[in-house]
Design a protein that fits this description.
The chain has one domain. The longest helix has 26 residues. By secondary structure, it is mostly helical. It has 7 helices and no strands.
Length: 120
């Protein structure tokens, strides 16, 4: 399998890991009259796409920079949603950005270890 395929598959698997540690919690969005069960899929989708973005980008060239950057950038827009909702706000945004960066780092690192390539 090529580098892109590895990244995509790893992103799909590792993207679910933060769900075991923290939310998002649908009830938090229900409080502000947003359908929380649907809103949380924005977070899941962003996290699952981290591997795809790590696999298709080439900048920065080194995996240990690109992985966390892709994870951070993909979680940033949904982080603003959490920042705007009453509840844990900045703490939740920081947690989402951190786990996104860690998922990106893990995807890029494992793909590098398996393929020996920094990017496709």
């Amino acid at each position: 399998m090529g580098y892109r395929v590895w990244c995509g598959l790893l992103g799909f698997v590792l993207g679910w890991a933060p769900k075991l540690v923290h939310g998002p919690i649908p009830e938090k969005f229900d409080l502000v009259y947003i359908r929380g069960a649907i809103a949380v899929w924005a977070f899941y989708t962003a996290r699952l796409l981290i591997g795809v973005f790590v696999g298709i980008t080439t900048w920065p060239a080194r995996w240990y920079l690109r992985g966390p950057l892709c994870g951070f950038l993909l979680m940033l827009p949904v982080g603003f949603i959490v920042l705007a909702t009453p509840g844990c706000q900045l703490r939740c945004m920081t947690l989402n950005l951190t786990t996104g960066s860690l998922v990106g780092l893990s995807v890029a690192g494992i793909a590098y270890g398996v393929t020996g390539r920094h990017h496709a």
